[in-house]
Amino acid sequence: MSGVKIVGTGSALPGRVVTNDDMAKIVETSDEWISSRTGIRSRRYCDAQAGESHRTLVRDAATRALEAAGIEPAQVGVCLVATFTADTCTPSAACLLQADLGMPEDTLCLDLNAACAGFVYGLHVAECLLPGAKRPYALVVGADTLSRVMDFSDRTTCVLFGDGAGAAVLECREGYPCLHAVWGSRGDDASLYAPGVGCEEPSYLHMDGRAVFRFATDVMPLATTQVLEAAGMRADEVDRFVFHQANKRIVDFAVRKLGLDPAKCEGNIDHTGNTSAGSVPILLDELVRAGELGSGDRVLLAGFGAGLTWAGALAELA
Q: Which residues of 193-220 are buried (b: 16+ CB within 10 A; e: fewer)?
């Protein structure tokens, strides 16, 4: 029976660093107020004058992942981009990536919107599609440019988010393990949402922080436990936990509730902020490039976001 492994990772962050002190010049806030409540000290924003955009972040993260995997774009059979802030509603970010990298025209390309859970959703979608694809590799990208949908008069949301992209290459092969993926949705158009095209109100992100905190601290432990049960594993058999970097308090709560080793759950929210679908793959790539994850390691990934959505998966690095 065929399964998948991660054979390469990549990420891309914009060059413009926005510190908490910078945010304090925009809204009534402070470094202490933000960092004590979220763990965030800085985030990155795209700079159009520097040629940065959602499209360039996706392209750069994908290119680095392919390079790390040691494969060419022509070997990719499935190309997925998880996002809700692409530069255009259509063509999809995945189709633009196909053009930018010169992937074959018969590559299955599509965007996927599960907000901050999107990358983990995308891994499972790619796992399902690869057995029927023309080539055995999938390129899965998670990317969002949240600075484009921020209301910079609302200090409860604008201080939380940043721009960024992360990517992973999956290889489908006989004898590789499955992802033991779990997922869920809880339709909710009030707790966390951004109006769509044609809406009368501006397309700013709206969030009920308390409702999202309650939701996240419910589903993060749930998804983690369900993945472990599906895989028939104990938590101490997992080499690393890569949780969506929404708020350090949420992650810390989940770690305590699950009784996990905090050293296996450290994040990067201090310098990225919440990058939505980019969050999980950016952290994954940072860990790989820092030498904290390597061949044979098993990583449990979990995310949650607007929808409301959540997902978890157990991936092995080749």
A: bbeeeeeeeeebbbbeeeebeebbbebb
